[in-house]
Design goal:
Bound molecules: NADP nicotinamide-adenine-dinucleotide phosphate
Structural class: alpha/beta
Number of strands: 17
Number of helices: 15
Strand content: 15-25%
Distance between the termini: 37 Å
Helix content: 40-55%
Radius of gyration: 23 Å
Largest sheet: 11 strands, mixed
Length: 422
């Protein structure tokens, strides 16, 4: 396709899909969105590290052909006020894999969050957040080394569907009448006394299709990465036909599609005495509220987690806080094949262009991207060098203020220190 502002590198090739698998050439075109605020600082630092790691791991045999695409403020200035140009979406559809810095959501009527728009328009249904501890990173836990989970959060359904009616509107009144008169919903007397014009109403759709495709991705990930369990996190004791159904569909899927490589927790104890055979994944489930406690008190018992949109939103930030917080937590939004990796924090505008903040979240999102395209040697190189840099107590301001005897460096100096340790 012909692009207006996007320059497609002539020395790169497209990643394609054949027989259901990504085919990655040795010079793949990967897309990057710089991001607003601190985006330029962390993207520049991270790209230097990824390129150096690829060069080191493959001695010139492989190289990323970067193509910049635009969203957010940079797009608005280039495309006459358009924060999310159609050709950026088209490029993601064509080239499949990209990484983005944080984007500002302009405040104002009718403006969709760019991040939500990306997820919806490209049907990136799985938000994936690996959370593990790197030695030396400040943590509130006594044993942060026991945290090593990958959270798969459903990205398109649940209360995020945006089907909501404001209290006091004719729409809310109509939904109320429908529920009462046609559906026979029983309302407590206190509600009736308050009057229904007092209630805002939101709808929580959860589908079998949406639940199963997310849980399928989580189980496949567990199998591909030698993980031991997949935990379905839900609030099905209360929300039976949405959260409870999610759990039920998860067990059904595991039985029907992965019956030879999965067992339930009950089978684990009844048939295997608590020790799962090699290569077999244990499917378990936990109620969401207890899961927050478990991730603090017994994190070692959890591995891959699959959950609905709202639970996943809360849980992924809470668990990330156990191992260092937003400056370091990586993430990705992935659909059937298209994948957009991203820093999970925002644009931190007060630090823009100060060369100050921690590039860890974006850098480690790039590690996920390298793993996604199968360049595992380069991914491990970045991770190893990052670990050694932090272990040497060379860190940005956010970690330095929580560590003893740390050497506080700028974003660019941190990048140089990581590259030295590759
Ligand atoms: P934020 O940008 O994440 O920043 C909040 C605070 O988190 C910062 O003041 C800083 O804390 C810390 N922080 C964030 N990134 C850091 C990094 N790389 N290194 C070190 N510390 C970091 O959240 P916000 O201020 O609520 O949001 C600002 C803008 O970002 C908003 O326009 C919002 O819409 C947008 N946003 C975008 C995304 C995205 O694109 N994915 C996500 C969230 C928010 P201290 O000052 O305490 O050091």
């Amino acid at each position: 396709m012909l692009y207006n502002k996007i320059i497609v590198p002539t020395d790169g090739e497209r990643i394609t899909v054949r027989e259901g698998k990504l085919r990655v050439p040795d010079n793949p075109i990967l897309l990057w969105i710089e991001g607003d605020g601190i985006g330029p600082d962390i993207m520049t630092a991270s790209r230097r590290i990824w390129d150096a790691a690829v060069a080191k791991a493959y001695g010139g045999q492989r190289q990323i052909a970067w193509a910049e695409i635009f969203a957010g403020e940079k797009a608005a200035s280039l495309y006459g006020g358009d924060y999310f140009p159609a050709e950026s979406l088209a490029a993601l559809r064509e080239f499949l894999v990209g990484i983005k810095g944080p984007l500002t959501t302009p405040v104002g009527g009718g403006f969709r969050s760019l991040n939500v728009a990306l997820r919806q328009d490209l049907d990136l249904f799985a938000c994936i957040r690996p959370v593990k501890w790197y030695p030396g990173v400040p943590s509130p836990l006594l044993r942060p080394d026991l945290v090593d989970v990958v959270i798969f959060r459903e990205n398109t359904e649940d209360v995020y569907a945006g089907i909501e009616y404001r209290a006091g509107t004719p729409e809310a009144a109509k939904v109320e009448r429908f529920l009462k008169d046609e559906m026979g919903a029983r309302f407590p007397s206190a509600w009736l006394r308050a009057g229904f014009d007092n209630f805002g109403i939101g709808i929580k759709p959860v589908s079998e299709f949406g639940s199963k495709r997310l849980i399928r991705k989580a189980i496949r990930h567990a199998l591909d990465h030698g993980r031991r369990s997949v935990t379905l996190v839900h609030k099905g004791n209360i929300q039976k036909f949405t959260e409870g159904a999610f759990m039920g569909w998860g067990y059904e899927l595991a039985r029907e599609e992965f019956g030879d490589v999965t067992i339930t927790e009950k089978q684990l104890w009844d048939e295997f005495g608590g020790a799962a055979p090699e290569g077999v994944i244990v499917i378990k489930d936990r109620i969401a509220d207890i899961m927050f406690q478990q991730m603090l008190l017994r994190p070692a018992e959890y591995d891959v987690i699959a959950t609905l949109n709202l639970n996943g939103d809360y849980l992924s930030d809470a668990v990330a806080a156990e191992v260092g917080g937003v400056g370091i937590a990586p993430g990705a939004n992935i659909g059937a094949y298209i994948a957009v990796f991203e820093a999970t924090h925002g644009t931190a505008p007060k630090y823009a262009n100060l060369d100050k903040v921690n590039p860890g979240s974006l850098l480690l999102s790039g590690v996920m991207m390298l793993d996604y395209i199968g360049w595992r040697e380069a991914a491990r190189a970045v991770e190893g060098a990052y670990t050694r840099t932090v272990a040497d107590r060379i860190v940005t301001y956010d970690f330095a203020r929580q560590m003893d005897a740390a050497r506080e460096v700028k974003t660019s100096e941190f990048a140089a220190a990581v590259i030295e340790r590759l």
